[in-house]
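Support reply, case 0932

Customer input (verbatim):
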Amino acid sequence: MRPLVLLLLLFLAAPALASDIYTYTLKDGTIVYTNVPPSGVKARKLGRLSRSTARASEVPAPMVIADSLIEEWMAKASAKYQIPLPLVRAVVHAESNYDRYAVSSKGASGLMQLMPGTARDMYVHDLFDVKENIYGGVRYLRVLANEFGGQMEKIVAAYNAGPDAVHRFEDNVPPYEETQAYVRKVLALYFKYKQQEQASASSSSAGHSSWQ
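Our regenerated output:
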């Protein structure tokens, strides 16, 4: 069996209701998730994960992280990788609805729903480390922005379906219903967050001038 154990396999092999989930990192950086208590490695027990929902909502948080801190990390990652903050927020919203322990049936995890392979490529060692997940996801958006010349529709489509799928259809949004719906949703959220950002900036500017 390949060293990478996807959560999808966990759900198929798990008991009908739920099972304990363990995670550990191999020497090559691969993050492994398993419902079998591992031996000979230093593993972290995440808690009980429901098979029926295929989400990690039952995993207890190792610490309480304020929403303001998550916003700060998104803003800093946005500035570092030169990705518009409204786009970062839109992707987080569309991917996980800000659920830091979200897990898809395909094994994508965390706020930005990173697949284990993508996470490894983006130097993310713990998919459920909120800061790492954000920085890894925004770093990946930067990679896609470079690859597709900053064209937002293609960047968003590639985030969902993979860059190869976009290239396969002559650098257009793939004709997959899921991907096209995803692109529409993210772009709508992007403009919503952009309007909020502009309104906030205008309000701050007006408030500042009133004190002069």
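We compared this against your earlier run and they match. Two observations from our side: The longest strand covers residues 18-25. The domain at 67-200 is CATH 1.10.530.10 (Lysozyme). Please reopen the case if you see a mismatch on your end.
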